[in-house]
Protein backbone atom coordinates (compact mmCIF):
# COMPACT_ATOMS: atom_id res chain seq x y z
CA UNK A 1 0.00 0.00 0.00
CA UNK A 2 1.33 3.43 -0.94
CA UNK A 3 1.94 6.04 1.71
CA UNK A 4 -1.20 8.10 2.13
CA UNK A 5 -3.57 5.36 1.00
CA UNK A 6 -6.70 5.07 3.14
CA UNK A 7 -8.28 1.65 3.39
CA UNK A 8 -11.36 0.71 5.43
CA UNK A 9 -10.59 -1.91 8.07
CA UNK A 10 -13.91 -2.02 9.92
CA UNK A 11 -17.29 -2.85 8.37
CA UNK A 12 -20.78 -2.36 9.80
CA UNK A 13 -22.60 -4.94 7.67
CA UNK A 14 -26.23 -4.76 8.92
CA UNK A 15 -28.93 -5.51 9.63
CA UNK A 16 -31.33 -3.18 7.84
CA UNK A 17 -33.51 -1.02 10.16
CA UNK A 18 -31.52 -1.99 13.27
CA UNK A 19 -30.17 1.41 14.37
CA UNK A 20 -27.00 0.97 12.30
CA UNK A 21 -27.00 4.59 11.12
CA UNK A 22 -27.07 5.87 14.69
CA UNK A 23 -24.38 3.43 15.84
CA UNK A 24 -22.18 4.28 12.86
CA UNK A 25 -22.47 7.97 13.70
CA UNK A 26 -21.63 7.43 17.38
CA UNK A 27 -18.56 5.31 16.64
CA UNK A 28 -17.39 7.67 13.88
CA UNK A 29 -17.30 10.62 16.31
CA UNK A 30 -14.29 9.06 18.04
CA UNK A 31 -11.06 10.94 17.17
CA UNK A 32 -9.30 7.65 16.38
CA UNK A 33 -12.03 6.64 13.92
CA UNK A 34 -12.74 7.87 10.40
CA UNK A 35 -16.28 7.02 9.34
CA UNK A 36 -17.71 9.56 6.88
CA UNK A 37 -21.50 9.66 6.74
CA UNK A 38 -21.26 9.61 2.94
CA UNK A 39 -19.78 6.11 3.14
CA UNK A 40 -22.53 4.68 5.35
CA UNK A 41 -24.76 2.56 3.12
CA UNK A 42 -22.44 3.08 0.16
CA UNK A 43 -22.79 -0.41 -1.41
CA UNK A 44 -19.26 -0.71 -2.77
CA UNK A 45 -18.80 -4.42 -2.00
CA UNK A 46 -22.37 -5.51 -2.79
CA UNK A 47 -22.99 -3.76 -6.09
CA UNK A 48 -21.04 -4.93 -9.12
CA UNK A 49 -20.99 -1.56 -10.85
CA UNK A 50 -19.12 0.04 -7.93
CA UNK A 51 -16.85 -2.88 -7.05
CA UNK A 52 -15.69 -3.21 -10.65
CA UNK A 53 -14.35 0.36 -10.52
CA UNK A 54 -11.63 -0.94 -8.22
CA UNK A 55 -10.61 -0.27 -4.64
CA UNK A 56 -8.89 2.94 -5.70
CA UNK A 57 -12.27 4.60 -6.22
CA UNK A 58 -13.23 3.78 -2.61
CA UNK A 59 -9.89 5.02 -1.29
CA UNK A 60 -10.33 8.27 -3.21
CA UNK A 61 -13.70 8.77 -1.53
CA UNK A 62 -12.09 8.49 1.93
CA UNK A 63 -9.36 10.94 0.97
CA UNK A 64 -11.99 13.40 -0.26
CA UNK A 65 -13.68 13.13 3.14
CA UNK A 66 -10.43 13.99 4.95
CA UNK A 67 -9.49 10.58 6.38
CA UNK A 68 -5.79 10.49 7.20
CA UNK A 69 -3.99 8.63 9.96
CA UNK A 70 -6.93 7.31 12.03
CA UNK A 71 -6.37 3.77 13.27
CA UNK A 72 -9.94 2.75 12.44
CA UNK A 73 -11.40 3.47 9.00
CA UNK A 74 -15.04 2.46 8.91
CA UNK A 75 -17.43 1.63 6.10
CA UNK A 76 -21.01 0.48 6.42
CA UNK A 77 -23.81 -0.95 4.37
CA UNK A 78 -26.89 -2.71 5.73
CA UNK A 79 -27.01 -4.88 2.61
CA UNK A 80 -23.61 -6.52 3.11
CA UNK A 81 -24.79 -9.35 5.35
CA UNK A 82 -27.70 -9.96 2.96
CA UNK A 83 -25.48 -10.52 -0.06
CA UNK A 84 -23.04 -13.45 0.32
CA UNK A 85 -20.79 -12.06 -2.41
CA UNK A 86 -20.28 -8.86 -0.39
CA UNK A 87 -18.88 -10.83 2.57
CA UNK A 88 -16.57 -12.75 0.25
CA UNK A 89 -15.35 -9.53 -1.36
CA UNK A 90 -14.68 -7.87 2.01
CA UNK A 91 -12.69 -10.93 3.09
CA UNK A 92 -10.72 -10.86 -0.15
CA UNK A 93 -10.00 -7.18 0.43
CA UNK A 94 -8.98 -7.55 4.10
CA UNK A 95 -9.13 -10.91 5.85
CA UNK A 96 -8.21 -9.18 9.13
CA UNK A 97 -11.10 -6.71 8.98
CA UNK A 98 -13.32 -6.22 12.00
CA UNK A 99 -17.02 -6.79 11.46
CA UNK A 100 -19.87 -5.10 13.35
CA UNK A 101 -23.41 -6.50 13.19
CA UNK A 102 -26.59 -5.19 14.84
CA UNK A 103 -29.49 -7.63 14.90
CA UNK A 104 -33.12 -6.75 15.61
CA UNK A 105 -36.06 -9.06 16.26
CA UNK A 106 -36.69 -10.13 12.64
CA UNK A 107 -40.47 -9.71 12.90
CA UNK A 108 -40.16 -6.14 14.19
CA UNK A 109 -37.40 -5.44 11.67
CA UNK A 110 -39.56 -6.57 8.73
CA UNK A 111 -42.44 -4.31 9.80
CA UNK A 112 -40.11 -1.35 10.40
CA UNK A 113 -38.54 -1.82 6.96
CA UNK A 114 -41.97 -1.95 5.34
CA UNK A 115 -43.07 1.25 7.09
CA UNK A 116 -39.79 2.92 6.13
CA UNK A 117 -40.08 2.11 2.43
CA UNK A 118 -43.72 3.18 2.45
CA UNK A 119 -42.56 6.50 3.83
CA UNK A 120 -39.85 6.69 1.17
CA UNK A 121 -42.51 6.29 -1.56
CA UNK A 122 -40.81 3.10 -2.77
CA UNK A 123 -43.40 0.58 -1.54
CA UNK A 124 -46.80 0.46 -3.22
CA UNK A 125 -48.24 -2.82 -1.84
CA UNK A 126 -49.79 -3.58 1.51
CA UNK A 127 -47.61 -5.62 3.86
CA UNK A 128 -49.32 -8.97 3.26
CA UNK A 129 -49.09 -8.56 -0.52
CA UNK A 130 -45.43 -7.58 -0.25
CA UNK A 131 -44.66 -10.76 1.73
CA UNK A 132 -46.63 -12.91 -0.70
CA UNK A 133 -44.69 -11.49 -3.65
CA UNK A 134 -41.28 -11.71 -2.00
CA UNK A 135 -40.02 -14.63 -4.08
CA UNK A 136 -40.94 -12.73 -7.23
CA UNK A 137 -39.18 -9.64 -5.96
CA UNK A 138 -36.04 -11.59 -5.07
CA UNK A 139 -35.78 -12.60 -8.72
CA UNK A 140 -36.17 -8.99 -9.83
CA UNK A 141 -33.40 -7.40 -11.80
CA UNK A 142 -34.17 -4.12 -10.01
CA UNK A 143 -31.48 -3.77 -7.31
CA UNK A 144 -33.65 -1.28 -5.36
CA UNK A 145 -36.50 -3.80 -5.16
CA UNK A 146 -34.30 -6.76 -4.26
CA UNK A 147 -32.25 -4.86 -1.69
CA UNK A 148 -35.08 -2.98 0.00
CA UNK A 149 -38.48 -4.51 -0.56
CA UNK A 150 -37.67 -8.11 0.40
CA UNK A 151 -38.68 -7.79 4.04
CA UNK A 152 -38.88 -11.43 5.08
CA UNK A 153 -35.60 -12.74 3.68
CA UNK A 154 -33.58 -9.91 5.26
CA UNK A 155 -34.41 -11.36 8.68
CA UNK A 156 -32.80 -14.77 8.10
CA UNK A 157 -29.87 -13.84 10.29
CA UNK A 158 -28.90 -17.43 11.14
CA UNK A 159 -28.24 -18.25 7.51
CA UNK A 160 -26.52 -14.92 6.92
CA UNK A 161 -24.26 -15.12 9.98
CA UNK A 162 -23.36 -18.70 9.14
CA UNK A 163 -21.92 -17.35 5.90
CA UNK A 164 -20.08 -14.52 7.70
CA UNK A 165 -18.38 -17.03 10.01
CA UNK A 166 -17.24 -19.12 7.06
CA UNK A 167 -14.84 -16.27 6.34
CA UNK A 168 -14.31 -14.28 9.53
CA UNK A 169 -13.43 -15.85 12.91
CA UNK A 170 -15.61 -14.89 15.86
CA UNK A 171 -12.83 -12.81 17.42
CA UNK A 172 -13.18 -10.41 14.46
CA UNK A 173 -16.97 -10.22 14.59
CA UNK A 174 -19.02 -8.26 17.16
CA UNK A 175 -22.74 -9.06 17.28
CA UNK A 176 -24.91 -6.44 19.00
CA UNK A 177 -28.59 -6.66 19.86
CA UNK A 178 -30.76 -3.79 18.69
CA UNK A 179 -32.45 -3.74 22.09
CA UNK A 180 -29.07 -3.00 23.72
CA UNK A 181 -28.49 -0.09 21.35
CA UNK A 182 -31.92 1.29 22.22
CA UNK A 183 -31.72 0.76 25.97
CA UNK A 184 -28.08 1.44 26.79
CA UNK A 185 -26.25 3.14 23.91
CA UNK A 186 -23.35 4.34 26.06
CA UNK A 187 -22.51 0.82 27.22
CA UNK A 188 -22.76 -0.53 23.67
CA UNK A 189 -20.47 2.17 22.28
CA UNK A 190 -17.86 1.55 24.98
CA UNK A 191 -17.87 -2.16 24.08
CA UNK A 192 -17.46 -1.28 20.39
CA UNK A 193 -14.57 1.07 21.18
CA UNK A 194 -12.93 -1.69 23.20
CA UNK A 195 -13.48 -4.20 20.36
CA UNK A 196 -11.86 -1.75 17.92
CA UNK A 197 -8.94 -1.05 20.25
CA UNK A 198 -9.55 2.69 20.67
CA UNK A 199 -9.91 4.76 23.85
CA UNK A 200 -13.20 3.61 25.38
CA UNK A 201 -13.38 6.66 27.64
CA UNK A 202 -14.51 8.90 24.78
CA UNK A 203 -18.17 9.91 24.98
CA UNK A 204 -19.96 10.81 21.72
CA UNK A 205 -23.21 12.69 21.25
CA UNK A 206 -26.02 10.16 20.98
CA UNK A 207 -28.03 11.44 18.03
CA UNK A 208 -30.80 9.16 16.74
CA UNK A 209 -30.64 9.01 12.95
CA UNK A 210 -32.66 7.47 10.10
CA UNK A 211 -35.80 7.03 12.19
CA UNK A 212 -38.80 5.76 10.24
CA UNK A 213 -41.27 8.39 11.48
CA UNK A 214 -43.45 10.10 8.89
CA UNK A 215 -42.75 12.74 6.26
CA UNK A 216 -43.09 16.49 6.60
CA UNK A 217 -43.46 17.10 2.87
CA UNK A 218 -44.87 14.44 0.56
CA UNK A 219 -43.72 16.48 -2.46
CA UNK A 220 -40.08 16.50 -1.29
CA UNK A 221 -40.22 12.79 -0.55
CA UNK A 222 -41.68 11.98 -3.96
CA UNK A 223 -39.21 14.19 -5.81
CA UNK A 224 -36.04 12.85 -4.19
CA UNK A 225 -36.88 9.23 -3.36
CA UNK A 226 -39.74 7.79 -5.42
CA UNK A 227 -38.70 6.01 -8.59
CA UNK A 228 -39.96 8.23 -11.41
CA UNK A 229 -38.94 9.77 -14.71
CA UNK A 230 -38.34 13.08 -12.94
CA UNK A 231 -36.00 11.46 -10.43
CA UNK A 232 -34.17 9.60 -13.23
CA UNK A 233 -33.69 12.88 -15.06
CA UNK A 234 -32.25 14.50 -11.91
CA UNK A 235 -29.88 11.58 -11.37
CA UNK A 236 -28.71 11.77 -15.00
CA UNK A 237 -27.90 15.44 -14.53
CA UNK A 238 -26.22 15.07 -11.13
CA UNK A 239 -24.43 11.74 -11.67
CA UNK A 240 -21.53 13.11 -13.76
CA UNK A 241 -21.02 15.95 -11.28
CA UNK A 242 -21.30 14.19 -7.91
CA UNK A 243 -20.06 10.65 -7.18
CA UNK A 244 -22.45 8.29 -5.39
CA UNK A 245 -20.91 8.71 -1.94
CA UNK A 246 -21.52 12.47 -2.19
CA UNK A 247 -25.10 11.96 -3.36
CA UNK A 248 -25.62 9.52 -0.49
CA UNK A 249 -24.62 12.23 1.99
CA UNK A 250 -27.08 14.68 0.44
CA UNK A 251 -29.88 12.08 0.45
CA UNK A 252 -29.25 11.36 4.16
CA UNK A 253 -29.52 15.07 4.94
CA UNK A 254 -32.76 15.48 2.96
CA UNK A 255 -34.29 12.38 4.54
CA UNK A 256 -33.42 13.53 8.07
CA UNK A 257 -34.78 17.03 7.42
CA UNK A 258 -38.03 15.67 5.94
CA UNK A 259 -38.76 13.20 8.77
CA UNK A 260 -40.86 13.98 11.82
CA UNK A 261 -41.16 11.91 14.97
CA UNK A 262 -44.79 10.80 14.79
CA UNK A 263 -45.94 7.81 12.78
CA UNK A 264 -48.91 8.25 10.50
CA UNK A 265 -51.46 5.64 9.49
CA UNK A 266 -50.33 3.01 11.97
CA UNK A 267 -51.37 -0.39 10.66
CA UNK A 268 -52.36 -3.57 12.45
CA UNK A 269 -49.92 -6.33 11.53
CA UNK A 270 -51.12 -9.06 13.91
CA UNK A 271 -51.83 -11.58 11.14
CA UNK A 272 -48.48 -10.98 9.45
CA UNK A 273 -46.66 -11.08 12.80
CA UNK A 274 -47.93 -14.60 13.46
CA UNK A 275 -46.90 -15.71 9.97
CA UNK A 276 -43.45 -14.22 10.35
CA UNK A 277 -42.95 -15.64 13.84
CA UNK A 278 -43.54 -19.16 12.49
CA UNK A 279 -41.29 -18.44 9.52
CA UNK A 280 -38.33 -17.28 11.61
CA UNK A 281 -38.34 -19.69 14.56
CA UNK A 282 -35.95 -22.28 13.08
CA UNK A 283 -33.58 -19.64 11.75
CA UNK A 284 -33.41 -18.01 15.19
CA UNK A 285 -32.33 -21.37 16.60
CA UNK A 286 -29.65 -21.55 13.91
CA UNK A 287 -28.56 -18.00 14.80
CA UNK A 288 -28.13 -19.02 18.44
CA UNK A 289 -26.08 -22.02 17.37
CA UNK A 290 -23.69 -20.15 15.08
CA UNK A 291 -23.23 -17.07 17.30
CA UNK A 292 -23.40 -18.70 20.74
CA UNK A 293 -25.74 -15.89 21.82
CA UNK A 294 -29.14 -16.35 23.48
CA UNK A 295 -32.00 -14.89 21.45
CA UNK A 296 -34.72 -16.58 23.46
CA UNK A 297 -36.81 -13.39 23.68
CA UNK A 298 -37.25 -13.51 19.90
CA UNK A 299 -38.70 -17.03 20.07
CA UNK A 300 -41.67 -15.83 22.12
CA UNK A 301 -44.65 -14.81 20.05
CA UNK A 302 -45.71 -11.23 20.80
Structure characterization notes:
This protein is an alpha/beta fold and about 300 residues long. About 50% of the residues lie in helices and about 10% in strands. The protein has helices spanning about 20-30, 50, 55-65, 85-95, 105-120, 125-130, 135-140, 145-150, 155-165, 180-185, 185-195, 220-225, 230-240, 245-255, 270-290; strands at about 10, 35, 70-75, 100-105, 175, 215, 260. The chain has a 5-stranded parallel beta sheet. A two-stranded antiparallel ribbon has the order 6-7. It is globular.
Q: What is the H/E order?
A: EHEHHEHEHHHHHEHHEHHHEH
Measure the end-to-end span. 51 Å
> How many individual helices?
15
Q: Report the CATH architecture.
A: 3-Layer(aba) Sandwich
Instruction: Profile the largest sheet.
Output: 5 strands, parallel
Care to count the β-strands?
7
Structural class: alpha/beta
Could you name the CATH homologous superfamily? Answer: P-loop containing nucleotide triphosphate hydrolases
What is the radius of gyration computed over CA atoms, rounded to a whole number of angstroms? 19 Å
Helix content: 40-55%
> Beta-strand level of the residues, as a percent range?
5-15%
Q: What are the segments in which pLDDT stays under 50 over at least 5 consecutive residues?
A: none
- Gross morphology is globular
The CATH topology: Rossmann fold
> What's the domain count?
1
